[in-house]
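Support request, please re-run this one:
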Amino acid sequence: MAHVTIDRDPDQSMYVVSFDPETIDSTVIRTGFMQRSITIHKTMTLKDRMDNMFRDIDLQGTVIDKTAIDQLITSSKETEEFIKKTPKYTVDEGTKELEKSYVEDALNTLLRTSNFLQEEGASFVQLYVGRHFPVLSWHHAIWRGSAVIETEDVKYAYMEVLRPAFLDVISWIESKSEVKKAGQVEKSEENIIKELYNEIIKDNKCVVNNSYISKSDLTEAIRESMNVSEATAKRKIEDLFHRGKVERYREGKAVYIRVI
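Re-run finished. Output below.
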Protein backbone atom coordinates (compact mmCIF):
# COMPACT_ATOMS: atom_id res chain seq x y z
CA MET A 1 0.00 0.00 0.00
CA ALA A 2 2.93 2.33 0.57
CA HIS A 3 4.16 1.94 -3.01
CA VAL A 4 1.02 1.46 -5.13
CA THR A 5 -2.04 3.62 -5.82
CA ILE A 6 -5.35 1.73 -6.01
CA ASP A 7 -8.33 3.61 -7.44
CA ARG A 8 -11.49 2.38 -5.72
CA ASP A 9 -14.75 3.90 -4.51
CA PRO A 10 -14.79 4.32 -0.70
CA ASP A 11 -17.16 1.42 0.02
CA GLN A 12 -15.51 0.65 3.33
CA SER A 13 -13.25 2.30 5.87
CA MET A 14 -10.56 1.03 8.21
CA TYR A 15 -9.36 2.42 11.52
CA VAL A 16 -5.89 1.03 12.17
CA VAL A 17 -3.75 1.86 15.20
CA SER A 18 -0.51 0.41 16.52
CA PHE A 19 -1.45 1.07 20.16
CA ASP A 20 -4.62 0.95 22.25
CA PRO A 21 -6.17 4.42 22.53
CA GLU A 22 -7.37 5.50 25.97
CA THR A 23 -10.78 3.98 26.92
CA ILE A 24 -11.00 2.05 23.64
CA ASP A 25 -12.40 -0.94 25.56
CA SER A 26 -15.32 1.14 26.82
CA THR A 27 -15.85 2.51 23.31
CA VAL A 28 -16.04 -1.00 21.85
CA ILE A 29 -18.51 -2.28 24.46
CA ARG A 30 -20.73 0.67 25.31
CA THR A 31 -21.17 2.62 22.06
CA GLY A 32 -22.30 1.95 18.50
CA PHE A 33 -18.78 1.05 17.43
CA MET A 34 -19.60 -2.66 17.31
CA GLN A 35 -22.63 -2.21 15.05
CA ARG A 36 -20.53 -0.53 12.40
CA SER A 37 -17.30 -2.49 12.40
CA ILE A 38 -15.57 -5.80 12.90
CA THR A 39 -13.02 -5.13 15.61
CA ILE A 40 -9.83 -7.16 15.29
CA HIS A 41 -7.17 -6.98 17.97
CA LYS A 42 -3.81 -8.67 17.60
CA THR A 43 -1.07 -8.71 20.21
CA MET A 44 2.41 -8.35 18.76
CA THR A 45 5.10 -10.21 20.68
CA LEU A 46 8.71 -9.11 20.71
CA LYS A 47 9.51 -11.96 18.31
CA ASP A 48 6.76 -10.77 15.93
CA ARG A 49 8.25 -7.29 15.87
CA MET A 50 11.75 -8.65 15.33
CA ASP A 51 10.56 -10.83 12.43
CA ASN A 52 8.88 -7.79 10.85
CA MET A 53 12.08 -5.78 11.11
CA PHE A 54 14.05 -8.64 9.54
CA ARG A 55 11.58 -8.74 6.62
CA ASP A 56 12.02 -5.00 6.11
CA ILE A 57 15.78 -5.48 5.97
CA ASP A 58 15.46 -8.36 3.47
CA LEU A 59 13.26 -6.17 1.21
CA GLN A 60 15.74 -3.31 1.07
CA GLY A 61 16.72 -2.61 -2.55
CA THR A 62 14.20 -5.05 -4.02
CA VAL A 63 11.54 -4.18 -6.61
CA ILE A 64 7.96 -4.40 -5.37
CA ASP A 65 6.02 -7.14 -7.21
CA LYS A 66 2.61 -5.74 -8.13
CA THR A 67 1.23 -9.05 -9.42
CA ALA A 68 -0.82 -9.87 -6.33
CA ILE A 69 -2.24 -6.34 -6.16
CA ASP A 70 -3.17 -6.38 -9.85
CA GLN A 71 -4.95 -9.71 -9.35
CA LEU A 72 -6.84 -8.28 -6.38
CA ILE A 73 -8.00 -5.29 -8.44
CA THR A 74 -9.14 -7.55 -11.28
CA SER A 75 -11.01 -9.84 -8.89
CA SER A 76 -12.70 -6.86 -7.26
CA LYS A 77 -13.92 -5.55 -10.60
CA GLU A 78 -15.23 -8.99 -11.59
CA THR A 79 -17.12 -9.23 -8.30
CA GLU A 80 -18.64 -5.82 -8.86
CA GLU A 81 -19.89 -6.88 -12.30
CA PHE A 82 -21.39 -10.08 -10.87
CA ILE A 83 -23.34 -8.08 -8.28
CA LYS A 84 -24.71 -5.73 -10.94
CA LYS A 85 -25.87 -8.64 -13.11
CA THR A 86 -27.51 -10.59 -10.27
CA PRO A 87 -30.97 -9.14 -9.52
CA LYS A 88 -31.83 -11.24 -6.46
CA TYR A 89 -30.08 -13.15 -3.64
CA THR A 90 -31.74 -15.92 -1.65
CA VAL A 91 -30.94 -17.85 1.54
CA ASP A 92 -31.09 -21.63 1.68
CA GLU A 93 -33.46 -22.53 4.55
CA GLY A 94 -31.04 -25.16 5.86
CA THR A 95 -28.50 -22.49 6.80
CA LYS A 96 -30.75 -20.76 9.34
CA GLU A 97 -30.49 -23.46 12.01
CA LEU A 98 -26.71 -23.51 11.60
CA GLU A 99 -26.64 -19.75 11.99
CA LYS A 100 -28.69 -20.03 15.21
CA SER A 101 -26.28 -22.63 16.59
CA TYR A 102 -23.35 -20.28 15.94
CA VAL A 103 -25.14 -17.46 17.78
CA GLU A 104 -25.67 -19.84 20.73
CA ASP A 105 -21.96 -20.72 20.64
CA ALA A 106 -21.01 -17.03 20.80
CA LEU A 107 -23.45 -16.43 23.67
CA ASN A 108 -22.15 -19.41 25.63
CA THR A 109 -18.60 -18.14 25.10
CA LEU A 110 -19.61 -14.76 26.51
CA LEU A 111 -21.25 -16.39 29.54
CA ARG A 112 -17.92 -18.05 30.41
CA THR A 113 -16.11 -14.69 30.56
CA SER A 114 -15.64 -12.18 33.36
CA ASN A 115 -18.58 -10.59 35.16
CA PHE A 116 -17.53 -7.26 33.65
CA LEU A 117 -18.11 -8.45 30.11
CA GLN A 118 -21.34 -10.24 30.96
CA GLU A 119 -22.78 -7.10 32.55
CA GLU A 120 -21.47 -4.49 30.13
CA GLY A 121 -21.69 -6.58 26.98
CA ALA A 122 -25.40 -7.41 27.04
CA SER A 123 -25.71 -6.63 23.33
CA PHE A 124 -22.21 -7.87 22.48
CA VAL A 125 -23.26 -11.06 20.69
CA GLN A 126 -26.23 -9.48 18.95
CA LEU A 127 -24.17 -6.64 17.53
CA TYR A 128 -20.93 -8.45 16.82
CA VAL A 129 -22.27 -11.73 15.48
CA GLY A 130 -25.89 -11.21 14.48
CA ARG A 131 -25.44 -8.06 12.44
CA HIS A 132 -22.39 -9.20 10.49
CA PHE A 133 -23.62 -12.74 9.75
CA PRO A 134 -25.77 -11.99 6.67
CA VAL A 135 -23.27 -9.53 5.19
CA LEU A 136 -20.24 -11.83 5.46
CA SER A 137 -22.23 -14.86 4.31
CA TRP A 138 -23.40 -12.87 1.29
CA HIS A 139 -19.84 -11.79 0.53
CA HIS A 140 -18.68 -15.41 0.55
CA ALA A 141 -21.51 -16.49 -1.75
CA ILE A 142 -20.51 -13.76 -4.20
CA TRP A 143 -16.89 -14.96 -4.13
CA ARG A 144 -18.21 -18.39 -5.12
CA GLY A 145 -20.18 -16.81 -7.93
CA SER A 146 -23.48 -17.85 -6.36
CA ALA A 147 -26.69 -15.93 -5.71
CA VAL A 148 -27.74 -18.43 -3.01
CA ILE A 149 -26.33 -18.18 0.52
CA GLU A 150 -25.66 -21.75 1.65
CA THR A 151 -24.15 -23.64 4.60
CA GLU A 152 -20.55 -23.13 3.52
CA ASP A 153 -21.07 -19.37 3.38
CA VAL A 154 -22.47 -19.21 6.91
CA LYS A 155 -19.72 -21.50 8.16
CA TYR A 156 -17.08 -19.24 6.63
CA ALA A 157 -18.66 -16.11 8.14
CA TYR A 158 -18.56 -17.51 11.68
CA MET A 159 -15.66 -19.98 11.85
CA GLU A 160 -13.18 -18.09 9.67
CA VAL A 161 -14.01 -14.46 10.51
CA LEU A 162 -16.40 -13.74 13.36
CA ARG A 163 -15.45 -16.36 15.94
CA PRO A 164 -11.65 -15.84 15.84
CA ALA A 165 -12.09 -12.06 15.95
CA PHE A 166 -14.72 -12.37 18.70
CA LEU A 167 -12.39 -14.45 20.90
CA ASP A 168 -9.50 -12.03 20.33
CA VAL A 169 -11.63 -9.04 21.30
CA ILE A 170 -12.94 -10.77 24.44
CA SER A 171 -9.43 -11.73 25.53
CA TRP A 172 -8.15 -8.20 24.86
CA ILE A 173 -10.93 -6.48 26.80
CA GLU A 174 -10.63 -8.89 29.72
CA SER A 175 -6.97 -7.94 29.99
CA LYS A 176 -7.68 -4.20 30.11
CA SER A 177 -7.47 -2.20 33.30
CA GLU A 178 -11.24 -1.75 33.68
CA VAL A 179 -11.66 -5.48 34.17
CA LYS A 180 -9.02 -5.52 36.88
CA LYS A 181 -10.76 -2.60 38.60
CA ALA A 182 -13.93 -4.65 38.53
CA GLY A 183 -12.52 -7.04 41.10
CA GLN A 184 -9.56 -9.08 39.88
CA VAL A 185 -6.94 -9.90 42.47
CA GLU A 186 -4.17 -7.33 42.43
CA LYS A 187 -1.37 -9.86 42.74
CA SER A 188 0.70 -10.18 39.59
CA GLU A 189 -0.75 -12.63 37.09
CA GLU A 190 2.59 -14.38 36.85
CA ASN A 191 2.52 -15.18 40.58
CA ILE A 192 -1.10 -16.31 40.40
CA ILE A 193 -0.35 -18.69 37.52
CA LYS A 194 2.75 -20.02 39.30
CA GLU A 195 0.63 -20.74 42.40
CA LEU A 196 -2.02 -22.52 40.31
CA TYR A 197 0.72 -24.55 38.63
CA ASN A 198 2.16 -25.56 42.02
CA GLU A 199 -1.29 -26.59 43.27
CA ILE A 200 -1.76 -28.89 40.27
CA ILE A 201 1.72 -30.35 40.81
CA LYS A 202 0.91 -30.94 44.49
CA ASP A 203 -2.38 -32.67 43.62
CA ASN A 204 -0.49 -34.77 41.04
CA LYS A 205 -2.98 -33.98 38.27
CA CYS A 206 -1.63 -35.14 34.90
CA VAL A 207 1.94 -34.62 36.05
CA VAL A 208 4.63 -36.05 33.76
CA ASN A 209 8.41 -36.05 34.17
CA ASN A 210 7.87 -34.77 37.73
CA SER A 211 7.34 -31.15 36.68
CA TYR A 212 5.22 -30.93 33.51
CA ILE A 213 1.43 -30.67 33.63
CA SER A 214 -1.32 -30.71 31.03
CA LYS A 215 -1.77 -27.30 29.43
CA SER A 216 -5.54 -27.83 29.45
CA ASP A 217 -5.51 -28.34 33.24
CA LEU A 218 -3.65 -25.08 33.83
CA THR A 219 -5.89 -23.26 31.33
CA GLU A 220 -9.00 -24.37 33.22
CA ALA A 221 -7.44 -23.42 36.58
CA ILE A 222 -6.60 -19.91 35.30
CA ARG A 223 -10.07 -19.52 33.82
CA GLU A 224 -11.78 -20.39 37.11
CA SER A 225 -9.38 -18.49 39.37
CA MET A 226 -9.29 -15.25 37.36
CA ASN A 227 -12.87 -15.50 36.07
CA VAL A 228 -11.83 -15.10 32.43
CA SER A 229 -12.59 -16.90 29.19
CA GLU A 230 -10.69 -19.94 27.95
CA ALA A 231 -9.18 -17.85 25.13
CA THR A 232 -7.85 -15.31 27.65
CA ALA A 233 -6.43 -18.04 29.87
CA LYS A 234 -4.58 -19.54 26.90
CA ARG A 235 -3.22 -16.14 25.92
CA LYS A 236 -1.86 -15.59 29.44
CA ILE A 237 0.06 -18.88 29.18
CA GLU A 238 1.36 -17.91 25.72
CA ASP A 239 2.51 -14.53 27.06
CA LEU A 240 4.51 -16.29 29.78
CA PHE A 241 5.95 -18.67 27.20
CA HIS A 242 7.18 -15.80 25.02
CA ARG A 243 8.73 -14.19 28.10
CA GLY A 244 10.64 -17.38 28.86
CA LYS A 245 8.58 -18.17 31.97
CA VAL A 246 7.04 -21.36 30.59
CA GLU A 247 8.57 -24.43 28.97
CA ARG A 248 6.50 -26.90 26.95
CA TYR A 249 6.66 -30.10 24.94
CA ARG A 250 4.21 -32.24 22.99
CA GLU A 251 3.22 -35.90 22.99
CA GLY A 252 1.04 -36.32 19.93
CA LYS A 253 -1.74 -33.77 20.28
CA ALA A 254 -1.25 -33.37 24.03
CA VAL A 255 0.69 -30.31 25.22
CA TYR A 256 2.51 -30.30 28.56
CA ILE A 257 4.04 -27.26 30.21
CA ARG A 258 6.22 -26.27 33.14
CA VAL A 259 6.06 -22.83 34.76
CA ILE A 260 9.59 -21.72 35.66
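Residues 151-174 form the longest helix (24 residues). The chain has 13 helices and five strands.
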